Known about the structure:
This protein is 54% helix and 9% strand. By secondary structure, it is an alpha+beta fold. The protein has two domains: 13-215, Transposase IS200-like (Alpha-Beta Plaits, 2-Layer Sandwich), CATH 3.30.70; 219-310, Orthogonal Bundle (Chromosomal Replication Initiator Protein Dnaa, Chain: A), CATH 1.10.1750. It is globular, with a radius of gyration of 21 Å.
Amino acid sequence: xxxxxxxxxxxxxxxxxxxxxxxxxxxxxxxxxxxxxxxxxxxxxxxxxxxxxxxxxxxxxxxxxxxxxxxxxxxxxxxxxxxxxxxxxxxxxxxxxxxxxxxxxxxxxxxxxxxxxxxxxxxxxxxxxxxxxxxxxxxxxxxxxxxxxxxxxxxxxxxxxxxxxxxxxxxxxxxxxxxxxxxxxxxxxxxxxxxxxxxxxxxxxxxxxxxxxxxxxxxxxxxxxxxxxxxxxxxxxxxxxxxxxxxxxxxxxxxxxxxxxxxxxxxxxxxxxxxxxxxxxxxxxxxxxxxxxxxxxxxxxxxxxxxxxxx
Length: 311
């Protein structure tokens, strides 16, 4: 069965869960968690999204993310790729760190944000790793209490739901979390309430899908993506489809794959058919390009130029 595209629109809030490959560890030492923090900060600065809550367990990660214009798919692709490169380098290994596709539930924030942030921050308590959430150092809970500063974590929205003044809001937050200490696993925070990808009632789901469809209608077609890439590199579509492995052609195909992966309504399978190439091959080429663009300014310029050209 084909995967349904992610639901994307500016302002959307998601509960994201990343799990270790084959149930294995994501973090091997504290330095890995600090490095992941750094990647989070850089990612927030680059893509302009917000993190309202998080918890880094050994074998999985919870994130409460609110996006702007950049789709969640691009954010998570960049974050997971950079962290995988780090782990493979420090561990002297190769292969996957994360298990397949991350889980992402679109959230009705008005109904669930407060409870979800509490649920995420209580994860170590439910796992019987600590007695109190503030005893666990790798979540957003301490920052909400004012005991820690994490510049990439946004606490304003949640705290504003609990009080007008910061001190009273933090006190109310602490009590709210304490009131949920005995709460067990909540399936809806993992499986959603609609289509396995939405946490909200039918009205919210209909509204979210409507917003996403409006965004899609403004987005580009595969033909437009290929045309923009060809203009950028001064080549023809026929050259792009050719079996040649010249660097210019290979890079242009990889850039087209990057743009397709950023688009919730486009699929690499379509691009693979157009280019007469294996989907996994062009997918890996796109990942390599994203990683290289972190340090290769001309390459990053080409990617941004195509994005701007497509509008």
